[in-house]
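Hey Z.,

So I finally got round to the S-adenosylmethionine thing we talked about over coffee. Here's the setup:
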Amino acid sequence: MSFTLSEVVPWGRSYDEYVSMFSLSPTDLKQKILGCGDGPASFNSILTSRGGSIVSVDPAYAFTTEEIKNRIRETYEVVLDQTRKNKDEFLWESISSVEELGRIRMSAMESFLKDFEKGKAEGRYQAGSLPHLSFNSKDFGISLCSHFLFLYSEQLSDKFHMASIKELCRVAQEVRIFPVLELGSKKSRHLKPVISKLEKENYHIEIKKVTYQFQKGGNELIIIKSPNCKASRSAAA
Ligand SMILES: C[S@@+](CC[C@H](N)C(=O)[O-])C[C@H]1O[C@@H](n2cnc3c(N)ncnc32)[C@H](O)[C@@H]1O
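And the result:
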């Protein structure tokens, strides 16, 4: 039995993980960024403290800090237990044990929790859900989506992926999604069909290798641009 979750869970990665997962250069970090499905990740809080411009959107932001904290508490054991049972699906290099993973994730999520009320008041954390976002066309330079699209391929349909990617492309010049694996460390079942449909509609697709890898084989990022954006390299899945 491989790593499985019955639903999309609140689980947050660190600023450094975002930078390497999304191959974010110093120039990228100066752009206006949308983090879609950021949940309790610390990317927003740390980037803001370093002078960056970011809005994170997630349905979880409709809840209070206390409610999110409780959901994290419930999720923590489930995720760590699944990781323990499926240890060989992960690469234990930069993170050396399940216990260290728990500490790193909790530290990122605590940074989010401390920042949440202030960030919400500043409009940096907004409740919202794919596939419909409330932003204007091209409000953002880059839109990032970590560990939601493609990862939850069993729970989210091909149609949902198409609609969500198009919506992210509507609100940002460029969309980056990581990883392109689904739970269980297999390539997402939606990847090829989604790429093929998007290419037929003249979206620009690039699959880029990144330095980050925790799920085995999870070191690829997909970059998508609307048909009307300047061209980039095309790639096969
Ligand atoms: C596994 S967490 C990933 C959090 C963060 N991006 C990271 O990598 O650390 C998945 C997130 O997707 C959010 N989510 C669930 N449904 C969503 C939707 N329809 N649109 C946007 N985000 C959604 C969840 O609330 C959760 O915070």
